[in-house]
Write a structure and sequence with these properties.
By secondary structure, this protein is an alpha+beta fold. It folds into two domains: 178 residues, Bactericidal permeability-increasing protein, domain 1 (Super Roll), CATH 3.15.10.10; 260 residues, Super Roll (Bactericidal permeability-increasing protein, domain 2), CATH 3.15.20. Helix content is 22%, strand content 46%. It is built from nine helices and 23 strands. The strands form four sheets. Strands 2, 3, 4, 5, 6, 7 and 8 form a seven-stranded antiparallel β-sheet that branches. Strands 15, 16, 17, 18, 19, 20 and 21 form a seven-stranded antiparallel β-sheet that branches. Helix 2 packs across helix 4. The longest helix has 25 residues. The N terminus is likely disordered.
């Protein structure tokens, strides 16, 4: 684990031009606290890598004169960070403080005096009262990836205690203080650079985040930041573009996101608001790609259904079909005529879709003969849920209406086909659509994460997801 949690959610990717975000993410104090717990492990590992070079010097000790000493093979034995806190600096970034920390080291000592007398042994160095105070800035790099850096770092070592082992104690006690000072200064100079390295280690990881997340063969979603993060005294807000695009072709949707605000909740680590703009941009992409179309054949109708896709069934309602094309199977092409419109109201997601149904007779040589084209207006309700780190859904039919577009078999009463089209929509089209919707599309995420204690609410113009996060190996 690393310090990545409380900056992780800046991994929400490249810069965009839109004023209002399609997706909002709020990182709460609870999320910051979880990040503090993970972050201490990273800093602790870094502090264990402190390297104090071999040291040598001389001291004048009465009455024996100059004493030359050297310290070598200094190794960190233990690092303790019993007190730490993380907080927010409004308008700036993240504040991390460490207090009452300690570091224990062990090494070897050697002295020479009166030119020929030598002595040696080992020593333990205990550093106590170590404090670190840092300010961490969050921004985007030139590629639009998130980037973190230390804006300020102050470190201080409270006390240093050196305990020598072996040799003549009366001798090394005479210059214990000067050695302690030298070791203290050497160590204090390294603390902030090591903390800076621990924070900088996040940036390569942040560059691997799903800047553009592929959904399927048709679409990808971009979570680009539309503005710098907003830091208050209790949360960080991130505004993300949250727009779907066709794979490899970033054509902007013909509509823009409207402003919305997340409610002041803090029971979870993280809150995400997915606006109707995001889902409508998905509808635009899939419609434009021709993915919202389906050929329906008789083998897709359940065997127990009395409705069959053949000229005999349709001939019962449109006699001229049975007369002109007796004993033939049929095929229906159901597709959207324009981009569906998705709306969010409290506890309700509704999709209005305009489409066409084209009926064909399948000739013995497999060629298709068009019979008629119906205009189809439908309203469906959607149930939205979170599956792993994806948001998914399922729809059910509310109502539908049919009008005649074109007939190649003469006039007929369109209403007589309502029951057949109801069966086709409920038993084939909607289940097929639900299979795709169940796969979901990726939420803003970092590395190997798992969402827990997740709750979802449908509010006016957006969906609110509240969740805690666990990092997995």
């Amino acid at each position: 684990m690393s310090l990545r949690w409380w900056v992780a959610l800046v991994a929400l990717i490249p810069l965009a031009l839109s004023t209002n975000p399609g997706v909002k993410v709020k990182l709460t104090e609870k999320g910051l606290e979880y990040g503090r717990q993970l972050g201490m492990a990273s800093i602790q590992q870094r502090l264990k890598s402190i390297k104090i070079p071999d040291m040598s010097g001389k001291e004048r000790v009465s009455p024996i004169g100059k004493v030359r000493y050297s310290l070598s093979n200094l190794q960190v034995v233990n690092v303790g960070l019993p007190q730490s806190a993380v907080g927010l600096v409004p308008g700036t970034g993240v504040r991390l403080s460490i207090g009452n920390a300690f570091i224990s080291l062990r090494g070897n000592w050697r002295v020479k005096y009166l030119r020929v007398i030598k002595d040696s042994g080992s020593f333990d160095l205990n550093v106590n009262g170590l404090t670190v105070a840092t300010s961490i800035a969050i921004k985007n790099d030139e590629t639009g990836h998130p980037e973190v850096s230390i804006a300020k770092c102050d470190a201080a070592v409270g006390s240093v205690n050196v305990k020598f082992h072996g040799g003549a104690s009366w001798l090394y006690n005479l210059f214990r203080k000067s050695i302690g000072r030298a070791l203290r200064n050497s160590m204090q100079k390294q603390i902030c650079p090591l903390v800076v390295e621990a924070i900088s280690d996040l940036n390569p990881k942040l560059k691997t985040l799903n800047v553009v997340a592929q959904v399927d063969q048709y679409a990808e979603i971009e979570y680009s930041m539309v503005s710098s993060p907003t830091v208050s005294d209790s949360y960080i807000d991130f505004g993300l573009k949250g727009e779907f695009y066709n794979i490899g072709k970033h054509q902007e949707s013909p509509f823009s996101p409207t402003a919305f605000s997340l409610p002041p909740q803090n029971n979870n680590m993280l809150y995400m608001g997915l606006s109707a703009f995001t889902t409508n941009s998905a509808a635009f992409v899939y419609h434009k790609a021709g993915a919202l179309s389906l050929y329906v054949t008789d083998d897709m109708i359940p065997q127990g259904s009395p409705i069959r896709l053949n000229t005999r069934t349709f001939g019962a309602f449109i006699p001229q079909i049975a007369k002109r094309f007796p004993g033939l199977m049929m095929k229906l092409m159901v597709k959207t005529a324009k981009t569906p419109v998705i709306s969010f109201e409290p506890n309700n997601v509704t999709i209005q879709a305009t489409g066409t149904v084209t009926a064909y007779a399948i000739q013995p040589n497999t060629t298709l003969t068009p019979l008629f084209v119906l205009n189809l207006e439908t309203s469906v309700s959607a149930r939205v849920f979170v599956s792993e780190v994806r948001v998914a859904g399922a729809v059910s039919l509310n109502k539908m209406s049919l009008t005649l577009g074109t007939s190649y078999v003469g006039e007929f009463q369109v209403r007589s086909l309502d029951s057949i089209l109801q069966v086709v929509l409920k038993l084939v089209v909607i289940p097929t659509l639900n299979v795709q919707l169940a796969k979901g599309y990726p939420l803003p995420a970092l590395g190997k994460t798992k969402l827990v204690n997740t709750q979802l609410q449908v509010l006016k113009d957006y969906i609110l997801i509240g969740t805690d996060v666990e990092f997995t190996n």
